Automatic annotation (TrEMBL):
It holds the Pfam family NTP_transferase. This is Mannose-1-phosphate guanylyltransferase. GO terms for biological process: GDP-mannose biosynthetic process. GO terms for molecular function: mannose-1-phosphate guanylyltransferase (GTP) activity. It comes from the Bacteria. Keywords: Nucleotidyltransferase, Transferase. Signal peptide: none annotated. SUPFAM superfamilies: Guanosine diphospho-D-mannose pyrophosphorylase/mannose-6-phosphate isomerase linker domain, Nucleotide-diphospho-sugar transferases. InterPro entries: GMPP_N, Mannose-6P_isomerase_type2, NTP_transferase_dom, Nucleotide-diphossugar_trans.
Length: 343
């Protein structure tokens, strides 16, 4: 099986550290290396590095090669523009199909924290075997350990188990807190890991079924790909294919797994002080509890509770943890205002 590490997103939920010029996958959060470096090197320490590819935006090509000097440029799949995971995975499939290579590919995000790489690879090998034999799509469904409002969920059909594999019945997107707690206790419901295992020809079949115009334009583009790619719709692979397909299966896994998609993710991987504060930089806390503070300058926090404070050259964020989910939309508003002021 091949591995395609998806590293082309912008990561606005980790603003201001994750910014358009250098998004989150190129930063260190869960370990000493960047998330891209950690994901790549964890795989490369256990599988043939020639089987590992990185899919990113063309604007990040040099950044990816700088962080991964061991990566051959021929194993870098670059999108001409950032159009989300739907077009990105389609482009990766097209890359292999043109090389007449239809071996199963594992499409996995670069920004996840999975400490047990061996257990992950074991599940992926089983998924790839099923995907190769059946021509189906397989994802990993992570057994929930808490009610999580910022994750998507997948619900399996009861009584559909094929060994370790279950048929996916439905997707549930980012539920309310009450609903998330209920889902975490419901049999046959799993966190959506965002990891997909399928053959390139399966991607082609599903794109022709569910996104025929997008696939036609990409397949026929040839040297015009750079021009037409930016005209493609922004679609996640969930919306483009997975939620529509009747050939989707999942392997339930009990892994320590985290999507490093927002600041509060740090609470599960970083040690807090006795008051529950997570601090990075020269920070003095006084009468404060439950805060996340990252700063590049001397900082004092007095009498604050449950805040996120990130002070970097790229910008300043001050938010309550409870309102963290609004960050992505507000960053977009800020960028729109910046563009308007430059016109």
């Amino acid at each position: 099986m091949k591995f395609v590490i998806m590293a082309g997103g912008r990561g606005n939920r980790l603003w201001p550290q994750s910014a358009e010029g250098k998004p989150k996958q190129f930063h260190a959060l869960a370990s000493s290396g960047s998330m891209l470096q950690t994901t790549y090197r964890n795989l490369a320490s256990r599988v043939d590095a020639k089987q590992i590819y990185v899919a990113t935006a063309d604007r990040y090509r040099l950044l990816a090669l700088d962080q991964l000097p061991e990566l051959e440029e021929s194993r870098l799949i670059c999108e001409p523009a950032q159009r989300d995971t739907g077009p990105s995975i389609a482009l990766s499939a097209l890359h292999f199909l043109r090389a007449e290579d239809d071996e199963a590919m594992v499409c996995l995000p670069s920004d996840q924290n999975v400490p047990d790489t061996d257990a992950l690879l074991g599940a992926l090998a089983h998924a790839a075997e099923f995907a190769e034999a059946s021509g189906s799509i397989v994802t990993l469904g992570v057994l929930p350990t808490r009610g999580e409002t910022q994750y998507g969920y997948i619900q399996a059909e009861r009584g559909s188990a094929l060994g370790r594999i279950v048929k996916v019945r439905a997707f549930i997107e980012k539920p309310s807190e009450e609903r998330a707690i209920q889902l975490a206790c419901t049999p046959d419901v799993y966190w959506n890991s965002g990891i997909c295992i399928w053959k390139p020809s399966t991607v082609r079949r599903e794109m022709k079924l569910h996104q025929p115009e997008m696939w036609r334009r990409m397949e026929e583009a040839g040297e015009r790909l750079e021009r037409i790619y930016g005209e493609l719709p922004r679609l996640s692979i969930d919306y483009a294919i997975l939620e529509k397909s009747d050939r989707l299966y999942a392997i339930p896994v009990a892994l320590e797994w985290d999507d490093m998609g927002r600041w509060t993710s740090l609470e599960r991987i970083k040690a807090a002080d006795e008051a529950g504060n997570i601090v990075q930089g020269l920070v003095e806390m006084a009468g404060s509890a439950g805060n996340i503070v990252l700063t590049d300058r001397p900082t004092i926090v007095i009498g604050a509770r449950d805040l996120i404070v990130v002070s970097l050259p790229e910008g300043l964020l001050v938010s309550s943890k409870a309102k963290e989910s609004a960050l992505k939309a507000i960053v977009q508003q800020l960028e729109n205002r910046r563009e308007e002021s430059q016109e």
